[in-house]
Each structure stands twice: as C-alpha cells, then as structure tokens.
C-alpha cells in the first residue's frame, strides 16, 4: 500500500534522506522510528506530495507521488507534528466540517462522520466550542479527527500523540486498533519508543537520513538480543558509525 524505493531528498548541499527503501502492507500499522531530525517528517511530506523526492520513487495506494499526486492526495489523511493548524475562531465541529468540504463531501455525510469521530475521540463536551482556548491535547484530538473526516484508505501520522495526556493517548491507541480492523493502512512516525512498541509489529528505523533497519520488531530483537526498544535503538544507532 506504501512503497518507498531508493528514495533520497536533498536541500541544496544538505542530504535529508539517502537511499531509503521500505514497504508498508495494506491494513498494517507501521512505525517510522527515529530521533528528531532523522528525516521522518521529510519522508512523510514526500508521501503527502508536499515535497518531491530528489531520487527514487514513492507509491501510495498504487499511485506515484511524482506522476499522480492528485490521486495520492484523494486517498490519504495526513497529520503533521508541531502546530495543529486549526482555525481558532471556529468550533471543533466547524473545523472538521471545513476539511470535509475540501474533500468534496456532502453536508449530511460530513455531519454523520463528525458524530462518529466525536464518539471515537470523546469530544462531545467541547465539539461545539471555539478551539482557540483549547488545551494542546484537545486541539490534537480535533486535528486527528480532521485527518480522518473523509475516511481515507492511507493514514500518515507524524508524532500524533504530542500533547496528549495518558487518557487521551490510550483513546488514540484504541482508535488506531479500530482503524486497522477497518483495513486502513497507517504509517505512524514517532521518536517515542513505547508508542511504537504498543502499536507496531514492523518498523523502519532511520538515523541521520539513512535507513538502519526495516522489518519486524521481533527480528530486530532477535538480531541484537535485546527486548527494550530504547536499548535496541541506541545499539543500532551507535553501530551505524554516523
């Protein structure tokens, strides 16, 4: 469902990613693991057609990000880390509805989808309040709901639990499980090893723009003889020589 083949991305003399390849299967929750600055967000921006690969190819749901970007955009939902990008004067419902309309959804379908997402993320208490005064966690819930409003087949989540408290993070994990049951393909980017361990069976580990490992977590643990993912990460990174 997501195919990354020998992808590199440069910005002038700076190489953000170099010769990265991995594959995410349909219906899989796949972890993109690396420290801040490793190149995770750059990779997701290329998948979302915001950036173009300097070299290599990315296909999402069978469509090339270079040749068929419109087809890719129709099939993805994307949440980037950092600023959630909500309109502070609009209510949570209005923010989600606005993005639904951008995807060409009918008003009734948007309303029905919002009600379902509100239940999934337990947003009923603040759904019709303006988002300006919301806490970071409340805003993050709205942003994730906005990402899912058009029911995309492929979901790209860049550090999605940023700002979420323990309760909200647990709700998010349950939602991810439900989406996987629905057959959604989910790429989950994080530097939080615990989140990756809870949600993903397979990962791609990137360090300073280079792919260090791609495959099953069980395989990685067997290869290095360690169970703790933090220790595994440090072992792989220290052995990379970069």
Automatic annotation (TrEMBL):
Cited InterPro entries: AAA+_ATPase, ABC_transporter-like_ATP-bd, ABC_transporter_ATP-binding, P-loop_NTPase
Q: Does the keyword ATP-binding apply?
A: yes
What's the protein here called?
ATP-binding cassette domain-containing protein
Has the keyword Nucleotide-binding been applied to this entry?
A: yes
The regions listed as transmembrane in this protein's record are none
Query: What family does the entry list?
Result: Belongs to the ABC transporter superfamily.
MF (Gene Ontology): ATP binding; ATP hydrolysis activity
Pfam family for this entry, one: ABC_tran
> Which UniProt keyword terms apply here?
ATP-binding, Nucleotide-binding, Transport
Q: Which domain of life is it from?
A: Bacteria
**Record domain ABC transporter: where:** 2-233
